[in-house]
Amino acid sequence: MSLYVKGSVPLQHFALQFDLTLPNKGITAIVGPSGSGKTTLLEVIAGLRKTSAVKIRFGKQQWQSASNFMGLAERRMGLVLQDPMLFPHLTVADNLRYGWQRAQQHFLSWDEVIQRCGVAELLEQKPPQLSGGQQQRVAFARALLAQPQVLLLDEPFSALDEATRQHFVAYLREVSAQHGLPVLWVSHQLTDIAEVSDYIVLLSRGKITSSGALVEQLRHEPLRSMLAMAVMATPLPGLDEDASKRLRIYARDVSISLQPVSHSSVRNQLWSTIHAVHESSHDAECLVELEYHGQYFFALISNAAWQQLALSVGQRVVAHIKSAALHHPVSQQLENTC
Ligand SMILES: Nc1ncnc2c1ncn2[C@@H]1O[C@H](COP(=O)(O)OP(=O)(O)OP(=O)(O)O)[C@@H](O)[C@H]1O
After folding, report:
1. Structural domain tally of the chain?
2. Which residues form the ABC transporter domain (predicted)?
3. Does one domain contain both 287 and 169?
4. What is the pTM of this model?
5. Which residue would you say has higher pLDDT here, 246 or 287?
6. What was the ipTM of the complex prediction?
7. What ligand 1 atom has the least distance to the C-alpha of 43?
8. Among 38, 41, 44, 49, which residue has the most ligand 1 atoms within 8 Å of its CB, making it the best to mutate?
9. 42 CA to middle of ligand 1, Å?
């Protein structure tokens, strides 16, 4: 089962054109410059733009075609747009009950969502009394409480402070993984995306320039030089790490030697193979792509070092990764910050 979207939507300066099959689990990030069509694509998938030139299928459900159109509620989507769109005349509790009462089955509990989204204190207030960040928290809670079969998010955490935003990103990942809930997520925060997405769609002036699994996309342009990082599944043999689900390793935190170094503060020394060498965003440096037990990561080194060590593709080298540089997905300990 997957989400299939195909079509064309004329916009002011160009047409948004798409032909995508997206995974029906995990987090898919939609990324691109401002004005490239990300929000429009999300609105099309949500059924907010009724156009006959669009086909959408979710598993066996035909959501939209030339002869068929299912509305947002029938698509059973949770939707959080940049504007939280809460009902201003209803209390927060009534806003939240709106989707909850219409849900066919409840896989997410009321109490858990209220607590994790930090909205218990807000239940009797009305949306105009809330700050932008509080409204976003309520909108996110409302989308979850509707027990959606797909969650669509457009910059849902933009008004939150950093710690609270990280908490919500972690909660989003947890909910998606635990309940197999597919998420489509538009965000400008590339680091968030690298941290929690599984799949990525890149848009430029209405065209999909690239799409695929994040791990693969990070190995290729444009993300390779934009982020210069890798996401690796753990546990990895020899790595000074507990079994977390994945690690982010930035190229700038990795160095290379020809032999293990015994007197070094760097404890993670991995015999790896040089798979390729790429240009970096700096003229004097290169991105060395290393392979370790079938996974790939980068080291950012100077061109002078590459020549001095007489490195070449296919060579076995020791990669040194600072322990402090092994970044886990955002911590769950931020739970009480909101
Ligand atoms: N209803 C519309 N009719 C015609 N053009 C539109 C319409 N809505 C948006 N556009 C244009 O379509 C383009 C894409 O807009 P969209 O909001 O989808 O981009 P975006 O990538 O989400 O941008 P941002 O990151 O700034 O939110 C923009 O150039 C915008 O001016």
Report:
1. 2
2. 1-230
3. no
4. 0.87
5. 287
6. 0.93
7. 18
8. 38
9. 11
